[in-house]
Amino acid sequence: MSDLSNVLGDLDRLMEAAQREAQAAADRQHDPRAEGSGTALDGKVSVRLAADGRVSELHLDEQVMAWPAPELAREIASAFNAAWATARSNDPAAAAAAAVDPAALAERLREVREQSLQSMRAITDSLAGVMQKIDQRVQG
Q1: Which of 23-27, 32-36, 112-116 is the most confident on average?
Q2: What would the mean pLDDT of 58-70 be, rounded to a whole number?
Q3: How high is the mean pLDDT of the chain?
Q4: CB count, 10 Å around CB of 130?
Q5: Looking at the predicted structure, is the pLDDT value of residue 64 above 60?
Q6: Of 11, 12, 74, 75, whose Cβ has the fewest other Cβ atoms within 10 Å?
Q7: What does the pLDDT read at residue 5?
C-alpha cells in the first residue's frame, strides 16, 4: 500500500508543478516588459511601444497627413496592433503561454488525477483479491 501512496504523492507533486507552470505561463502572458514596433503603409505610419506597453513613438509621414481622418486612424490602429503583436511574440515562451488556458489546463489535470486514482484503486483492489486467494490456498 505504501507504493500506492508513493505513486499518489508523485501524481500530486506533478499536478502541483503543472499548475505552477500554468500560472507562470499566465503571468508571462500579462508581462508588459516586452517592447515592440509596427508599421503600416510601407513604413509611412510607425508605432513603437515602450517596455511598459505605452506608445513611446508615433511617426506619421507627411504624405499621410493629408489623408481623411478615418483612413489615417485605421492605419495607425494597424501599426499599433502590429507593434503589440511584435511585443507579445518577442518571447517564444510568452507567445506559447498566450495559447494556454491555465484554468482549462488545471481542470484537465484534476480530471487526469481523478482517473489515475480510480485506476490505481482498481489495481489495488485486484491485487488485494489475488493476495487473499493466495493466502487462502497457502493456509488451506
Answers
A1: 112-116
A2: 89
A3: 78
A4: 10
A5: yes
A6: 12
A7: 67
Q: How many CB atoms lie within 10 A of CB 63?
A: 9
Other CB atoms within a 10 A radius of the CB of residue 97 amount to 21
- What would you report as the CA-atom Rg of the chain, rounded to the nearest whole angstrom? 28
Q: In what order do the strands lie in the sheet with 55-60?
A: 36-40, 45-49, 55-60
Check: CB of residue 39 under 8 Å from CB of residue 45: yes
Domain boundaries, the chain: 2-30+98-139, 36-90
105: Cα within 13 Å, side-chain hemisphere: 19
Contact (CB, 8 A) for 91 and 29: no
**What would the grid cell of residue 139 be?**
493456509
CATH of 36-90, one of 3.30.1310.10, 3.40.50.10210, 3.40.50.880, 3.30.428.10: 3.30.1310.10
